[in-house]
Amino acid sequence: MNILIVEDDLLNADLIERLLHKEGFEVDVATSFIDAISCIDKSIYDLIILDWNLPDKSGYELLEELRSLLIDAQVLMLSANDGVEYRVKALNGGADDYLCKPYSHVELLARVNSLLRRTNSNKNTIIQIASVFIYKNTKEVKIEDELINLTPAEYELLEVLASNPKKTFTKFELLSLIHNEYASFSMSNIIEVHIKNIRKKLQDKEIIKTVRSIGYKIVS
Fold first, then answer.
1. Can you state the percent helix, strand and coil of the chain, rounding each to 5?
2. DSSP 8-state code for residue 17
3. Closest CA relative to residue 141, chosen from 86, 87, 207
4. What CA–CA distance (Å, rounded) separates 220 from 207?
5. pLDDT tens digit string along 140-192?
6. How many whole angstroms separate alpha carbon 28 and alpha carbon 11?
7. Could you point out which of 52, 108, 149, 174 has its C-alpha 20 to 30 Å from the C-alpha of 96?
8. What pTM, to 2 d.p., does this model score?
9. Packing angle between helix 105-122 and helix 10-22, nearest 10 degrees?
10. Is omega for the bond preceding 152 within 30 degrees of 0, making it cis?
11. Half-sphere exposure of 143 (CA within 13 A, CB side)
């Protein structure tokens, strides 16, 4: 599970990072709105721990940006504001949970685990793009009722693209998902090969767009 901490208090960010690392999570830290956007452009996160107060823009503005981009990571908002109006605003804005400062690390970890269990449950969904159906629980792809035979790597690439329809993925990002196939991926054209095969198997339906000089994205 990948977690992004967005917190400008370096001491608090470090404490949370070490706590989560001990639990076996992969963790990145951003200290501002701009840093967070940069991280989100490069990686996919299951959970974002987001502080309300950031030096450039507010955490709430970042929350709005995340949801406008259709990023479906769970968001745990942290804030020293314990008023009901702040909780309501955060939850209505797309936060999945709200935790007031100061808090215990035991409670923070409990909230994190609860949200990640919810993430696992939400993964059992169906994504539809035109007449293509992606069944995330069974890892099957169908065009109407016809089962499409994708390799595991092809399926993984298609699911990642389809789960993040607003995001353009670089070839390096996509290659990192299947890097076990190659000891060195800097010289490999495997992504182009996989995308070509996926398009062919999907009967050349134009749902994967090539973004020139960058990579690929899903279009509906």
1. 45, 25, 35
2. H
3. 207
4. 6
5. 999 988 999 999 889 989 998 988 887 888 888 888 766 554 434 444 688 89
6. 15
7. 174
8. 0.60
9. 60
10. no
11. 12
